[in-house]
Design goal:
elongated, alpha+beta
Amino acid sequence: MVGTEAKLKERIKELTCLYEVTSIIVNSDYDQLETSLEAIAYCLKRGWQFDEDTEVFLTSGNYTVQTEGFRSDMVNITSDIRVFNTFDGYIQVGYPKDAYQLSDFLEEEKTLLENVALAVGNLLERKQVHDSEAAIKRQVERADRLHILGEITAG
């Protein structure tokens, strides 16, 4: 019974993590994206089986965030972040090398990491679309002002 109960608790942690990440993404401000990515990193940390030893590193485009104790020499699993089907960065979740090995990661955690990387990629895609729309809107407004100014001076 203890094994089943422990497994259920892990699934609950993973589902809670996915729910929190989704909430962060839905409520994220495109101008404060680094804050959202940092919150996602800490959500991932809490969602892992050995959360007190888990550390997270996330890098994509102009953004790099990590939890406080992350070191590059950790045993880790990685998932690529893709923006418009192009590699744009990755998320690494790691444990200290001296206490853990690769087999300590659960298959469900690997799936969770893939889903979070996909969601982060979608968020970054939406930010790029938002930024492009804003730039086009500014260009159109400028062209309208120049057109009006031309009409005023011509006649």
